[in-house]
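hi support,

uploading two proteins for the ticket. first:
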Amino acid sequence: MLKVKNVTKYYGDLCAVNDLNFEVKEGEIFGLLGLNGAGKTTTFRMIMGLLDDYTGEITLNGKKIDYTMTDKIGFLTEERSLILKLTVKDQIEYYGVLKGMDELTIEKKLDYWLKRFDIEEYKSKKIKELSKGNQQKIQFISSIIHEPKLLILDEPFSGLDPVNVELFKEVILELKEKGTIIIFSSHRMEHVELFCEKLLILVKGKTVLSGYLKDIKDNYKKKNIIIEGSIDKDKIKSLDGVINVTKNELQYKVELEDKKYIPKVFKAISNSDNITKFYVEDATLNEIFISIVGESYEQ
């Protein structure tokens, strides 16, 4: 288990992380979210033992994280950290040796992952000759080649097409099933919703929301109603509690301040004889994120 307890980090007079607390168990995927400058990168660096001048405690399976523990951690950075002049083989060997692996084991595992990602022909190619998407695959391989106990993924799908996003998702879920502790960070909230059971949102280093995703969505007052059929859009929009009504080619989306207004909307359309769908959905994580972060910045 990864435990972050009462962690505070200053850069001079600037508080980058303020009394941060969370736990991630084996086989959990935890979302650490926030705008640029929120404190995520500082948190990653403290977890990896790159920064140690903070107050509080960070432990992995009960032990303080230092250089004796870093071989158990994998990190896929948002900015690519590949050496462009190296070949794929040399690059992965370099990272593997740094993590305490022998070259024979590294090459065996590299061959497996190159085949898994359908890029076997690039083994002897230089990194600079690869597309952005294939470079991202190599960076991902470098972060998991040593089978880490803790894996930090910062914007893992950067530069990937939809087919390769699905491939990455498959691998990430396999790692979860094997018990890997995973911290997932992305500005794409739909990706966070796919993976994360628990999450935490940082604003200017301070926690503004944390908990299980299901509970966060259940407790968030704003709800959406999806309606298929013909309705009087202006009439619905004029009802108490209705924030907005939008329409795409197939359906209407009615945004509500609170679920208590659902019966009023249902009553307003009850006389329509061509309604084929009416259902209530939670607000998306993207909507919740924008609302929570926006409110926090205004305070």
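and the second one:
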Amino acid sequence: MKIRIIGAGLIGTSMALGLKAAAHAVQIEDEDPEMERIAQNLIGHSGDLVTPDLFIVATPISSIISVVKSLAVSNPQVDIIDIGGLKSEVINEIERFPEIAKHFCSTHPMAGREIAGALAARGDLFEGRIWIITPTSQTSSELHQKALKIAKDLGASVVERDALLHDKAIAGISHLPQVVSSLLSLTLEGISQEDLALAGQGLKDVSRLAASDPNLWAELLHENRHALAPLLNLFAGHLNDLSTSLQNDDLRKTLEVLEAARINHRRIPGKHGGKKRDYWYLPIVIEDRPGQLAEIFDACAQVKVNVEDIAIEHTPGQESGLVNLALSREDASKLYEQLLKNNWKVHLPRESIG
């Protein structure tokens, strides 16, 4: 297809890179000339597409409706999709105009990074991610297929949701984690820089989202405030329960809260959105020399085991490092026997890295 993307931020530019790699003709534009120039340099494009087959609106959520209407007026026969993070207001407004609604389909790729802008773009950003499609009640079947093709060409898995269900789900799986991460980072203002220097990976993992663009997130949180507020109240209640149990030195209640959280954590999907698996971790001490990882993966191939994840730790100045492979329990046992036989410094598989 010939595609024109409006908005040269992280998502728009990442889409441009991915769609160009999938052999589409892509142009990208932005109201910020510098962002547009960076994005166009990245995709190696100059000049205009005469008549695009599809517009993709990748602007901030507050401007999506006005941009869609403007494009529909100037290009009444050209299809339009957006990639905004919320759907209800957009769908409700566009459906007031049947001729626009016929040529419009709303979508939302569940992908992003905590750093923004064209320079953060990656053509593989959507590989293996969920891509939500929310058609209007009048969206043409032809446009519906175009939206599916865009998502699949970028390596995503498509799910369809109506607008209200989409926004309710996003409040829990996206907006609540952002709030928790941001408030955690805000709470750290009372901790000295000297003490923060002692932080391990846990703090870095949980606070990562706090580095996201506050302008983008303030807008999203307010737009979805009605769906988010009940979840924040529930979170505040759990936090109060834990605070009370600590103040009262009620160890039983603290254990009850933490155990309930641990059990509920298992509901979060695993790889490719499937049922979460309880991986076992195989620790291997390796020498700091070339070829060690290749030899480990050769051993994996020999016994036909599938590595689900890998973590590498290496202390500067040390001549050895630690590799933790995540596998099924059966595969971890098979690989352990194979590596032990070949004199690797491998240790018994365990249920957690720690």
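thanks. also noticed: The longest strand covers residues 280-287.
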